[in-house]
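Weekly structure sync - notes
Attendees: PM, LS, DV (DV joined late)
Agenda: review two folding runs queued last week.

Item 1: First target. Sequence and structure tokens pasted below for the record.
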Amino acid sequence: MALFTESSVRACIRVKDGRRVFYLGPGDRLTPSAREWLRQERIEIVQGEQPKPKTYETLFGGTLTEKPEHMTHLRGNILVFKDHPRIEFRGQIDLLEAELLLAQRTAMADGREDMADHLQEILDFVRSLIRADVLDEPVQPLHILGLTVEELRERSHAPQKYYGQSHFMPSRHDAPTLLAINKVRTVIRQAERAAYKAFRDENGAVRRDDIILALNRLSSLCWILEIQLKAEQKEVEP
């Protein structure tokens, strides 16, 4: 009998007949967040005896018959220490998802359902990054809120041209939604740095530059949303 959290579920996704599935063994249970993640990702829960490897492998050539508490799944039956850069990166994505959910609640309390919807689109995309990492798939093309990668970069660098609002430093006088999105932006930056550490080689070359580019442009998108909110705020100030 096992209790699967969202992070442990992500590590145990399998592919069956070209689709992703999760095997839930007799007596095993899912946390609410794990079940919600499976639902949102449209991953089928297959009831029955969950196949467990007879042995676990490590990146340094070892073989284990039991999973130590200080290790976790990198993929399949491959175990790594919990401070492995890839696990650190996944932890930063978990943190980012949590901040996005809190920012949505702030936006809704602030009467900004439109911003809550924009944040949902960002959240959906962020969740797809874990799939890209775990299954070693390419990141889906980034075309979020109707903007391409190039447009996100251009508009975040020239906000006065597109929104009539120059770059600014957020302050305590800004709207709660703006400040919540600003927090999300900083967490995205943390995740981007964690991704670089996770996917670089000993020479500094990056294997998953698509993930790093996606996070970089997501931070640009958050800045654009802040710019839009600031411009609106300026319009109503006496």
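Item 2: Second target, run right after the first with the same settings.
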Amino acid sequence: MSFLARAMEVFDVELAAIQAVRSQLDASFDTAVAWIVETLRNRSKILVAGVGKSGNIGHKIAATLTSTGSTAAVLSPMDALHGDLGVVNDGDVVLALSYSGETEELLRLLPALKRFSVRLIAMTAFPKSTLGRHSDLVLACRVPKEACPFNLSPTSSTTAMLVLGDALAMSVLEARGFKKQDFAKYHPSGAIGRALLSRVRPQ
């Protein structure tokens, strides 16, 4: 029994999701890039918050930002309410991920964040959700449907969030003038580090 047809269908659904989110890009994206660049210029940082699958995508976005010279950290909404808010400083940018915009654990964090002078950027499908309404900026990422046959398991939506996060990180990289040689500072090991740091000796 072959599942190639099913696999191709998943690819098609997720590709359509990425195209849908691409069409939702607007001036808010440019504003998000400008805010992040300004934040980093002031030696502050980006905090990425999410729960569940969105939290997993948030870890990847934070890692991509950090590895390309943009200081970022993961802020767990649950841990933040039990002491981890100590990582938040005035001047930071918080990137909050929730497809529904109604994730309870994330919403409980908002009043605490409002006590700081931070900018809150939401990545959600629903700008008029609770998260969207309480954010300073919204990056919309609504997809036509999930690749899950029951339209329940986060699949297309998390893929779209990941690509949107990559677009944000790469735009910030370019805006900050990050160069290929700068990778050597952040990748001293592994294949990237070896390629950038090794030198061929003349024979």
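Discussion on item 2: The mean pLDDT is 92.
Action: LS to circulate a short write-up before next sync.
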